[in-house]
């Protein structure tokens, strides 16, 4: 039962993170993770440089990490 609650919470937080991403971040994230697109493919598709695609993916992963795991440092430094 507890595992189901954790899984639901995880999925809910993941969906929230996807909603908070910009449209470009969401498109790049989903293409990388679910379609297996390369940086070069995405750069051509969105008219960006490879470095810009990497930055957009990093921002998307940051949103996802913060939404799912929260502010991890507050568990270590509560003040």
Question: What can you tell me about this protein's structure?
Answer:
- By secondary structure, this protein is an all-alpha fold.
- The protein has a single domain (2-72), classed as Arc Repressor Mutant, subunit A (Orthogonal Bundle), CATH 1.10.10.
- The protein is 81% helix and 0% strand.
- The protein contains 5 helices and no strands.
- Helix 1 (2-20) runs antiparallel to helix 4 (50-69), helix 2 crosses helix 4 (50-69) and helix 3 (39-46) packs across helix 4.
- The longest helix has 20 residues, at 50-69.
- The mean pLDDT is 86.
CATH level-1 class: Mainly Alpha
Largest sheet: none
- Supply the number of helical segments: 5
At the fourth CATH level, what is the homologous superfamily? Answer: Winged helix-like DNA-binding domain superfamily/Winged helix DNA-binding domain
Write the CATH fold name: Arc Repressor Mutant, subunit A
Query: Which consecutive residue ranges, at least 5 long each, have pLDDT under 50?
Result: none
CATH architectural category: Orthogonal Bundle
The radius of gyration over CA amounts to 15 Å
What is the end-to-end distance? 33 Å
Backbone structural class: mainly alpha
- Principal-axes geometry comes out as elongated
Number of separate domains:
1
Helix content: over 70%
Portion of residues in beta strands equals: under 5%
């Amino acid at each position: 039962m507890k595992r189901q609650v954790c899984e639901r919470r995880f999925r809910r937080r993941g969906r929230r993170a996807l909603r908070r991403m910009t449209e470009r971040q969401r498109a790049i994230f989903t293409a990388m993770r679910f379609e297996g697109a390369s940086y070069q493919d995405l750069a051509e598709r969105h008219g960006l440089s490879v470095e810009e695609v990497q930055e957009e993916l990093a921002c998307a992963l940051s949103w996802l990490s913060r939404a799912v795991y929260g502010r991890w440092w507050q568990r270590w430094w509560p003040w």
